[in-house]
Amino acid sequence: MRIPTMKSSRSGAKAAAKATAPAQSPSTAEAIGRAVRRVATSVRSAFFSSSSIMRGKSAYEAASPSARVQSVPDVGPNGALQAHAVMRARSRHGYRNNPLIRQAIRSVAANVIGYGIKPVIPFPDLAELWNDWVEEADARGQLDFYGMQFVGVQTTAMGGETGFRFRDRKEKDGLAVPFQIQMMEGDHIPLTLTQIAENGNEIIAGVERDAIDRVVAYHIYRRHPGDVSPRGADWQTVRVPAEDFILMFMPERPGDTRGVPWMSSSLNKFDGIDTWDDAALERQKTTTMYGGFFRKPVDADDGSVPGAAATDEEDVILQPLEPSTFVELPQGYSVDFANPPGADPNSPALRRDQVAGAAVSVGLAFEHITLNFEKLGDRQFRALMLEVTRLLESVQHHMVVQQLCKPVWRRFVQTAILSGKWTPPEGARERDYMRVEWMPPARGHIHPVQEISAYAEAIRAGITSRKRVAAELGVDVSAIDIENGRDAARAKEAGVVYSVYPGTDGALPPPSDNSAAITALEKAEMEERLERLEAAEGA
Questions:
Q1: Helical H runs in 267-405?
Q2: How confident is residue 313, by pLDDT bands cut at 50, 70 and 90?
């Protein structure tokens, strides 16, 4: 039988003893230690709890049931399209106002396109026609086709995507080939247009797909919805077949319909860097505004200066000084020069890390967007460029060549044939002139002597060819051979000797019919290209 009164009296005695006992306050170190352990435990439990394993919830810390982890959103490829407009606007605002963002986007375009990704055309007459058309490709008449490539990549990096609409022209327009390209921003395709079309196709963010998920049309505004026009806004869309329109962007997930600005993952970081720079600059400006401070002499009793001459002026105003100026102060005045604190010595390294973290969002390094190479030697820069070049080459091939250059070339050749501007040579098959190689711009040399020597050794060892080396340098090997043949013939005719031409110790090569050799080279090169195209088609 329990006796509550006994328990109660014992509890009361203990409570009284505790009340009368002197307080045992823990030391400061012990209190801090317990607080740190509690914080560490709570932080870890925010991501992982061993009890959750026993309950069968998750064996991965990244999938712990904490609120911070479980609140991470996950949507399908087109589930976040409503955020594209905000990111696009912020990216453009950053390009206009942040020099780092501007340089990052320009550096992407300069490294991916440079002076242009050009075709290697096996038919001289078609190549000549192409070169004429390149100058007239832009429907607005501002750029040539390679300039449109540059602006297209720059626009895609900034806004996520770029549109190219094919425009057929009339014979009376006097173009080399009656076909031009109208370049436009992604804003022309409404992000909010998601519905079922009258023909039963799905329209997602202005892009129409058929039953097998193939893009068949784009619904576009005739004018940019955010631009100024004397006609006012035009919110009516027009349906443009997919064969007449290109939407160039780099998909990030299978099923992506629209492109995301490339700097979307670093916009907040760039804003933080910008705020940091402004704060540091204002801090330094404020501290350097003060040259020094002067102290008035004050008597402890009546406020007068002991031994000072009488004066009618109550205050002495010190004006800013010119260089090398001597100033006589009244008796008793003293001057303390300003000694503002310097910048944080760790600030440059920390800022470099922050800028580098933002730069990688577009596949570049700190040096690319700051043009500050003081921390890199030539070997480190080579290693850096090897990694950066891999991404740049993937953008060149997977986006620019595949999405833009190839469709433009097919449309150019088709229009040239249909308009009678070019006739395929006898025996040539369609795939012989519909497929061409696209040659990216040359990479600059970090150490030209070493790199050219390495190319020459590789050719002599048989592990590469002159053709591939020439392509890496951004030139066509057949054009080089023809030019060298003409140069050698001209030198022979003039009776001059150059050591770069065949011979011993700069001697002239034996007499030969250079014109026949040039013709043979051109014929052999064309046959080689045709064979390669046939082999590629067969594979």
A1: 267-288, 347-359, 366-370, 378-395
A2: low
